[in-house]
Amino acid sequence: MSVLEIRGLHKAYGGIQALDDADFVIESPGLYGLIGPNGAGKTTLFDVVAGTVQADSGSVRFGGQDITGWPSHRRALGGISRSFQECRVLPEESCLDNVLFAAQPKGLAACMWQAFTRNNAHRRRVTDEAMRLLGLVRLQGHAHTPAAQLSFGQKRLLELVSVFMSSPRLLLLDEPASGVNPALLEVLSDFICTMYAEEARAFLIVEHNMEFIMALASDIIVMHQGKVLERGSPQAVQASPRVLEAYLG
Predict the structure, then answer these.
(1) What value, to the nearest 5°, has the Cα angle with vertex 99 and ends 34 and 30?
(2) Domains in the chain, ordered, with CATH?
(3) What CA–CA distance (Å, rounded) separates 143 from 159?
(4) Does the structure show a pLDDT above 70 at 111?
(5) Is residue 222 a contact partner of residue 35, using CB atoms and an 8 Å limit?
(6) pTM reported for the whole predicted model
């Protein structure tokens, strides 16, 4: 059973064809890179998989189940989590509260359950896990610091920690290395590798930092003009004439 199956996705915005028969399969957990020139359709693909945008045609299957018509919250509950190009944190809340908020089940039923129960043991477990993850990205000392006081790179790391608190099976990371300084890039890479080693999941990572993604991912998917142009190992993709032409024009 494949983790993610993208079949014949099309999405147009007016006269712009953002996805044009995009088609690929992620068969198993692993670290996958999704690269391509600006305008290749990478973020639109993420939006369609996450359910924030509906494709004009085509299908999305997750864990063998057709989720094409599912809304985004149902996909999130089913195990799909994502980060964004623009870093999204709660600036006035502490780092710990940012992570704990991400861990809260969403929806009316969950809110009612939380209102009528006081499961302190569960809260302690969640808090302990949040602190553990903050420690892995060297933010444990900032647990009670408002997120607004962090550097941009630290905010990126905080967002990434928050993504993991829902225990996803598929992570869509949209340019996690963007704006992160070299020292924190190493922390970021180590964190992703640690989380994959702890539990086999599928990571699909959009990235423009070629050095970062080629060292991190073992399977690279290249998009161009809304479709998959090439796929293979980092070495094969970097040597591909078609990929070089797409990037250099």
Answers:
(1) 30
(2) 4-248 (3.40.50.300)
(3) 13
(4) no
(5) yes
(6) 0.90
